[in-house]
Amino acid sequence: MAERTPWSLSGALRGMFQRPTITEDTWDDLETALVGADFGPDVTEAVIDELRANVERYRTTDPRDLQRMLRETIEERLSKYDTTLRLTERPAVVLVVGVNGVGKTTTIGKFARFLGTYGRSVVVGAADTFRAAAVDQLATWAERGGAQIVRPQQQGQDPASVAFQTVEFAKRTGTEIVIIDTAGRLHTKGGLMDELTKIRRVVEKQAPVSEVLLVLDATTGQNGLAQAQAFIEHAGVTGLVVTKLDGSAKGGFVLAVQEQTGIPIKLVGQGEGIGDLTGFTPHVFAQKLVG
Amino acid sequence: MATFGNLSDRLADTFKNLRKKGSLSASDVDGTVREIRRALLEADVAFEVVKDFTSRVRERALGDEVNKALNPAQQVVQIVNEELVGILGGQQRRLEFAKTPPTVIMLAGLQGAGKTTLAGKLAKWLAKDGHTPLLVAADLQRPNAVTQLSVVAEQAGVAVFAPEPGNGVGNPVKVAKDGVAYARSRQYDTVIVDTAGRLGVDAELMKQAANIRKAVDPDEVLFVIDAMIGQDAVNTAKAFQDGVDFTGVVLSKLDGDARGGAALSVASVTGRPIIFASTGEGLDDFEPFHPDRMASRILDLGDILTLIEQAQQAFDEEEARKVAEKFATDSFTLEDFLKQMQQLRNMGSIKKMIGMLPGAGAMREQLDSFDEREIVRTEAIIQSMTPAERRNAKLLNGSRRLRIARGAGTTVTEVNQLVQRFEQAAKMMKTVARGGVPQMPGMGPIPGAHGGASRKQAAKSKKKSGSRSGNPAKRAAENSGAATSGAAVPAGSGFGLGLGGGAARSVDAPSEDELAALQKFLGRG
Ligand SMILES: Nc1nc2c(ncn2[C@@H]2O[C@H](COP(=O)(O)OP(=O)(O)OP(=O)(O)O)[C@@H](O)[C@H]2O)c(=O)[nH]1
Ligand SMILES: [Mg+2]
């Protein structure tokens, strides 16, 4: 799927790197490309200032040098954090959170398969008891991903109790990894954010929570920052998952999210197929982005 | 984006040094335009649209209309607002219905935009309006989208056509086509076709969407887009316009805190009107789109009052501080009341000023019926009082009132009304000046009357007082509760203007933001 569109800034940057020398137009183009990739006005300005200083220092006028510097800057910024998933506890409990429609349930299906290929046994918990047909959707993904599923016993059951029962199931059966799906919620809704805190607290009565993954949709703009801040506060996020990178959106805002919150990107989703999930490698990401 | 402060604050800074100036220099305008540019980018308005927009604002701001304006800074803000509303469509557009039913409405958009939920909302809304909608399950891609649509249909109390199980099984073009035929034979008067989410760059799936469109020949194709989307809104909107050529736009998830700059991008790049706003997970969280509210939301102009009144030269800060003190200490007199009114008249543009407040439509109407002559009458009455009477309204007994009425060439009733208004205003302002929110019996809040500002406010107050219940079933109730949780606040202008007597009672209550601005004005902010 990913090869259908070259996900990168290369299109936006092509003209600029083909000019013989660096001119004011080059900087304008760079700004347009970075803003267009959702880096946001602040990061864009910071990156450009840094690059301008470098260009000055190394006295270069070659756009290819600039391209290399851009790649390095982005890679350096992205690799400040440890992207390893911590799943050593048994069971290792993973909570998946995020706003509506970002790809939580899909990610869980793909993640289950991902873990399965490493020989791990997985159970998913259908703690989205709110949205219509969410449980069935997760069940379909669990089947595709080769995971077991714990469903609510009745419609609209308290999500925290479903999460609790899932962990209980894992302990009873010796299942290694627990992934809890939660209902999408806008980060501005206090009551719903408190619900997440409660799910976490209830799970912790049984087992420590190994990872809380916040799913961010690459098409999101600057609001992604507000989302991240709220979910970190209420759910103790430990890692970011960026989805829908198979589209034309670049997801530049995650850089700002990482920098402002110190929470690393851990997984990347690039399609609706069961295999469209990978770990996050800053080098590859920067290479693909800048070319 | 609290970290950056909002545009109003930053513009207020930019404007500070303009207050004593009569006209704007090119560099004043550039500074302002830079701030606007930044705010638009933070609101995720597409860069190309931002560039275009700011150059137009710059041009107009340097033009004649601003230099001749009473208050150039204020005029610039007005220009920005006008341009925004202009792009967003100026007027609301309604759904087009077919001359011979069924009316066919097709939904299209990215994955996770909110199409399926919207299908339910639209159906419920139409049903309430006496229509008989049929939902057609043509998203055969996403796991259990068909089940989801069926559940939503049941919740909305409408029929669903779902012949295929989905999860990759079935032909969506055929389902859509059969759905319309089914509606025709069963006399459903509207058909809503839910389709799978797809990426703009997915040529194959875009083609499929185009084929669905061809097969059902819809009266409306609604492009559903998430209010939180970033710069990609433009690529996506263009791809859908080329692919299926939508007729209208629905902005979803507006209940969050995204500024929703995408609305501006999509409207300006495609020229298609935004018809609806989707504002929550409940099936009733759905409303016609209001361009003016969106304009102030994008620029976060909810507290524009602060800005204007800071830029406003008619009010002297020192004077305002003194008045505030008087309010707080109960020594506000009829003399002060008169002075204030005269100041208001000096401003000349109160109508315009209030007209710029987000969502002030209702207030604007009241203002239109407000008569400047009322100030003249008030002046006459107060001037017919003795200095002692002006300083102490309690002296005004029946015979004094009669004397005053005669002196002012009016009736005792009018004098009574004025005194009453004055007392009310003094009491109200005292509360406000002391930091409280005055209560006015019989003046309930008007839900949703303030657009962006009130939504923000509802979210805020919900954070504080929202139900702690973990029961998701209560969600819908919570959501609708939030809309009415705005503070009850007094009607009319806080300056004690009568605004034509009783009519003032039905004026919108000012929002928290406006009250805050008022407090700031009163020197306590
Ligand atoms: N193209 C693409 N689509 C994706 C990706 N991940 C998820 N989706 C699609 O996005 C839509 C929403 O995905 P879900 O997994 O239901 O999202 P969710 O966050 O669980 O949604 P709610 O539970 O409703 O909040 C579906 O149509 C998915 O197929 C991705 O990486 N690429
Ligand atoms: Mg889900």
State the main characteristics.
heterodimer; A: 291 residues; alpha/beta; Rossmann fold; 8-stranded mixed β-sheet; 8 strands; B: 525 residues; Four Helix Bundle (Hemerythrin (Met), subunit A); 434 Repressor (Amino-terminal Domain); 3 domains; 8% strand; disordered C terminus; binds guanosine-5'-triphosphate; binds magnesium ion; 7S RNA binding (chain B); Signal_recog_part_SRP54_M_sf (chain B); Signal_recog_particl_SRP54_hlx (chain B); GTP binding (chain B); cytoplasm (chain B)
Counting helices, strands and paired strands, the structural category of chain A is alpha/beta
One letter per element, helices H and strands E, the order of chain A comes to HHHHEHEHEHEHEHEHEEH
- Label the overall shape of chain A: elongated
- The tally of domains of chain B stands at 3
Q: Tally the helices of chain B: what do you get?
A: 24
* Number of β-strand runs of chain A: 8
**Helix content percent band of chain A:** 40-55%
Number of strands of chain B: 8
Q: State the CATH superfamily name of the largest domain in chain B.
A: P-loop containing nucleotide triphosphate hydrolases
* CATH fold label of the domain at 92-237 in chain A: Rossmann fold
Summarize model confidence as the mean pLDDT of chain B: 73
The number of helical runs of chain A is 11
- Rg of chain B, nearest Å: 27 Å
As a whole number of angstroms, the C-alpha radius of gyration of chain A is 21 Å
